[in-house]
Amino acid sequence: MSDFANILLNWFRENGRDLPWRQTRDPYAIWLSEIILQQTQVKQGWDYWERFMRRWPMVEDLAAATEDEVLREWQGLGYYSRARNLHYAAKQIVEMGGFPQTIEGLSSLKGVGDYTAAAIGSIAFGLPVAVVDGNVYRVLARHFGIDTPINTTEGKNTFAALAQEQLLPALNRKGQGAGLYNQAIMDFGAIQCTPQSPRCFQCPLWETCDATHTDRVDDLPVKLHKLTVKERYLSYLYIRCRGEVAIHRRGPGDIWQGLWEPYLEDEDNKPDLKGWYTILKRGVKHVLTHQVLMADFALLQTDERPQLPPDYIWVAEEDLDNYGVPRLVERLFHAVRLYDEEPD
Fold it and tell me: What counts of helices (H) and strands (E) characterise the chain?
């Protein structure tokens, strides 16, 4: 075992996070945690993991759920394609007769990429495969002084080869090795070698860390900036008619696929709307990875259903909580409730 790996494992024994999905080698529990924690911090994802495990304790239970039920349980986590992929993959696993136990098999599951397959395979099945994620890039780039951009093909190949061929320990008597090391380096990046203000002077790798001794801690890892964020404007109209509200399901090819939302006003195709119109909020900002949304919220109360596009349905207002909606629409619903609670 390399000195680097040995030091990390010793650090992990003293400082590793006590997380519930680490108390088991059940591939379902581990897979669920990995999908939830994609783009989500542990402190937020923990509650969702427990909620899913309570409601669907086995992969067969999750596979038997409806997509709407899964999306509703996922509500608030964002990146909803993860929830749809999770549900689809659960059905794949059931059709396979159980979790695949090879990297190739795990990678065939919807929503499971190289990192997630390596995490599940190494932790649940003891497969000798190294994980490489943002935490790992940061630890390796700083310690070994690697300035190749991590979002280039050369960079990905460089880090993957280093992690897999030089650092990965062999299995121990408990069938652990790669899985334990992978958890150690992920925690080390999350707790010790953090993006900002890393704990360099309390670091067990300080003596051999290239970035510390060349004053490049803040410069590594290197990432080429290619992301262009665009601004987008939305105008939501909450149409209430005799205790019902008009909603529709968002289609493919855009954000929030499969989630529900109230009427989205279209300047080029406005229906004849009659009733009591109230502006609730203007310029509500909602930030996504590639977009900044600016939304206006309004309420229309009417006794006559307007003629809306055919994909809109009318549901009882008290049943809205049964439909999965994006966080921005949750904020609209909250604005409506606040308006309803105002004294006359």
Answer: 13, 6
76 three-state secondary structure = coil
- Catalogue the E-assigned strands of 70-160: none
Classified as helix, coil or strand, 325 is coil
Q: Is 311 helix (H, G, I), strand (E, B) or coil?
A: coil
Active site residue 34: yes
pLDDT for residue 267: 65
Q: What is the reported pTM?
A: 0.81
Which residues, including other chains, have CB under 8 Å from residue 324's CB and lie 6 or more apart?
Answer: 68, 70, 71, 72, 74, 75, 80, 258, 259, 260
Cα 284 to Cα 286: distance, rounded to the nearest angstrom: 7
Neighbours of 340 (CB within 10 A): 10
Report the distance separating Cα 137 and Cα 134, nearest Å.
5
Looking at residue 273, its amino acid is L
Predicted confidence at residue 170, as pLDDT, reads: 65
* Two structure tokens written together for 195: 């993006």
**Whole-number pLDDT of residue 173:** 47
Are the beta carbons of 60 and 221 closer than 8 angstroms?
no
| DSSP calls for 186-215 | HHIIIIIS-SSS--GGG-TTGGG-HHHHTT
Q: Which of 14, 34, 304, 330 is catalytic?
A: 34
Q: What is the mean pLDDT of the chain?
A: 93
Between CA 177 and CA 167 the distance in angstroms is 11
Contact 244, 316 (CB under 8 A): yes
* Cα separation values, 265 from 20, 85, 97, Å: 44, 30, 46
Structure tokens belonging to residue 290: 């590639």
Give the CA angle between residues 84, 118, 31 to the nearest 5°: 40
What residues are paired with 237 via a beta bridge? Answer: 263, 298
The span from the CA of 249 to the CA of 261, in Å, is: 7
Query: Which amino acid, 259?
Result: L
Question: DSSP class of residue 243?
Answer: T
Q: Is the per-residue pLDDT at 171 higher than 60?
A: no
Residue 122 near residue 179, CB atoms below 8 Å: yes
